[in-house]
């Protein structure tokens, strides 16, 4: 079932938590809402669920309004055919696993289907053997599986998830991420997933919606968001890298990004299309676009290694450039040491964002 918003907005007193938003989430699509705390992503999720009322703008499920203030339509959450998974699991401690999963079915009056639906839901999350246990007898990962089973037991057409993996450790998050992805696709549900973890959103989603200060900054596939951010807010929030501010120049007919007098980076002519010499741009430089060389090179940029982090299959190296107050990150299979002089080259296909104003600098994590 698709979800549509038309000029949807939300105010809390004098604070505009969500600026007018129009969007369609396609049926069967897995969409993640990402952004810093307070950006409006959870508020949007709660309005879809019916837990918050919009200040303006209808919400439609499959073309049918579930909220429309002008026509006095406001379906309660239990009438919206949704399932919801919360960050803190929200399980009843005095109920067994079976009773927790059955709760939603009983609340919506589907008592005759309880045993079959609960059994099927618990099998889907590999917990059918634990139906008589209580939440305190389960691990964190098992408790989250119960919460997921409860959400899907009612056969929802839409599943809403509010940072459901943030309370789990790293290995469990990976396991649960795979489970959620496979269940959503298998059951052909439309999924809206809220997270502040951009890597989690990139790994799971068909589309990512990046939000900031109550406004959507960019919507696109994970590849589009990562490779072609529309502004520096998206570029700095999504992925690791460095956002450099520089001047477009030309040296012997080769377009260059002039970061300082001593630091100039070759650019692709395709990337500079539409730009003029002396235009200010932001350039997002990802670690995989930087190549390190332990031998001095006239064609490369000179720098000194600041930190080296071992990531298992490779090293992540931060390099302080000579000639400017900037730092780049790089991935390499060759071990280096802090303080080591190094040469680096940057791929000329780095993404540029045109802007006006003076110099700014931001490193992304």
UniProtKB/TrEMBL annotation:
The entry's keywords: ATP-binding, Nucleotide-binding, Transport
Catalytic activity, reaction form: a quaternary ammonium(out) + ATP + H2O = a quaternary ammonium(in) + ADP + phosphate + H(+)
SMART domains: AAA
E.C. numbers: 7.6.2.9
Ranges for domain ABC transporter: 3-238
GO cellular component, one term: ATP-binding cassette (ABC) transporter complex
GO MF: ABC-type quaternary ammonium compound transporting activity; ATP binding; ATP hydrolysis activity
Thylakoid recorded as keyword: no
Enzyme class: translocase
PANTHER family noted in UniProt: SPERMIDINE/PUTRESCINE IMPORT ATP-BINDING PROTEIN POTA, SPERMIDINE_PUTRESCINE IMPORT ATP-BINDING PROTEIN POTA
Subunit note: The complex is composed of two ATP-binding proteins (OpuCA), two transmembrane proteins (OpuCB and OpuCD) and a solute-binding protein (OpuCC).
Protein name in the entry: Carnitine transport ATP-binding protein OpuCA
Lineage: Bacteria, Bacillati, Bacillota, Bacilli, Bacillales
């Amino acid at each position: 079932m698709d979800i549509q918003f038309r000029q949807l907005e939300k105010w809390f007193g004098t604070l505009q938590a969500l600026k007018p938003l129009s969007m369609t989430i396609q049926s069967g699509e897995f969409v993640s809402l990402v952004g810093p705390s307070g950006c409006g992503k959870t508020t949007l999720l709660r309005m879809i669920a019916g837990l918050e009322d919009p200040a303006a703008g209808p919400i439609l499920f499959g073309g049918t309004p579930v909220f429309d203030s002008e026509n006095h339509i406001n379906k309660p959450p239990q009438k919206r055919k949704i399932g919801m998974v919360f960050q803190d699991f929200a399980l009843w401690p005095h109920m067994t696993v079976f009773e927790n999963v059955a709760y939603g079915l009983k609340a919506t009056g589907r008592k005759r289907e309880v045993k079959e639906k609960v059994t099927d839901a618990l099998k889907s999350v590999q917990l059918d053997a634990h139906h008589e246990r209580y939440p305190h007898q389960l691990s964190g990962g098992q408790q989250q599986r119960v919460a997921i089973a409860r959400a899907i037991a009612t056969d929802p057409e839409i599943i809403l998830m509010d940072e459901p993996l943030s309370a789990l450790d790293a290995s469990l998050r990976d396991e649960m991420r795979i489970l959620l992805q496979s269940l959503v696709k298998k059951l052909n549900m439309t999924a809206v997933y809220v997270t502040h973890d951009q890597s989690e959103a990139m790994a799971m989603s068909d589309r990512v919606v990046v939000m900031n200060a109550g406004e959507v900054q960019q919507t696109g596939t994970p590849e589009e968001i990562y490779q072609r951010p529309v502004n520096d807010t998206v570029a700095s929030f999504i992925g690791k890298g460095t956002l450099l501010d520089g001047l477009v120049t030309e040296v012997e007919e080769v377009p260059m990004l002039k970061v300082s007098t001593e630091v100039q980076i070759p650019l692709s002519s395709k990337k500079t299309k539409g730009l003029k010499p002396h235009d200010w741009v932001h350039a997002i430089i990802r670690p995989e676009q930087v190549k390190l060389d332990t031998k001095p090179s006239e064609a490369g940029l000179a720098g000194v290694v600041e930190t080296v982090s071992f990531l298992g299959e490779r090293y992540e190296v931060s390099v302080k450039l000579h000639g400017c107050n900037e730092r780049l990150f790089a991935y390499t299979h060759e071990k280096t040491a802090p303080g080591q002089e190094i040469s680096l080259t940057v791929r000329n296909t780095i993404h540029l964002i045109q802007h006006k104003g003076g110099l700014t600098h931001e490193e992304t994590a």
